[in-house]
Amino acid sequence: MRQLIRSIALMAVAAGLPACSNPKEPTAAPAPQQAAELSHPAPAVEAKPQVSAASRAEAKELFATRCMPCHGAGGAGDGPASVSLTPRPRNFTDREWQGKVTDEHIEKIIQYGGLAVGKSPAMPPNPDLTSKPETVAALREHIRSLKK
After folding, report:
1. Residues of 71-97 as b/e, b for ≥16 C-beta within 10 angstroms?
2. Taking the CA atoms of the chain, what radius of gyration do you get in angstroms?
3. Which of 2, 20, 64, 98 is the most exposed place for a label (fewest CB within 10 A)?
């Protein structure tokens, strides 16, 4: 009989139920991780926007007008305005940097500027792009494509 009770108690614990029905015996609280899983659903994974040909064309134009003066046409940080900047603009062709930086970081600096990520305030924000996630994604794609 004892063995039967012990087996039932073990099955109840495995199912997340109190181990006993005796009010004098304390019941085990769920483990902190289990409690967190029960009270907070897993965060939703944000899907990256699909990039259309129109967004890629807009991104190409934006890169030529806003990014190229400092970062250069090829993204090497050698644009005509770069000579007067300290620190020098980011070299997007740098494989090591490309391997370390996240897509989210690139998109954040495009939209909110250097100060938003602890970098130079010379990298200006582009607040008009915060409502254009597809264009921002296309700019990020372009920056990623410059890796040598």
Report:
1. bbeebbbbbeebeeeeeebbbbbbeee
2. 27
3. 2
Please give the residue range of the domain that contains residue 120. Answer: 53-145
123: nearest Cα among 104, 109, 108: 109
Residue 127 within a domain: yes
Within-domain flag for 24? no
CA–CA dist 109, 116 (Å, integer): 7
Q: Report which residue type is found at 110.
A: I
pLDDT tens string 59-111: 999 999 999 999 999 999 999 999 999 999 999 999 999 999 999 999 999 99
Looking at residue 91, which CATH number applies to its domain? 1.10.760
pTM over the 0.70 mark? no
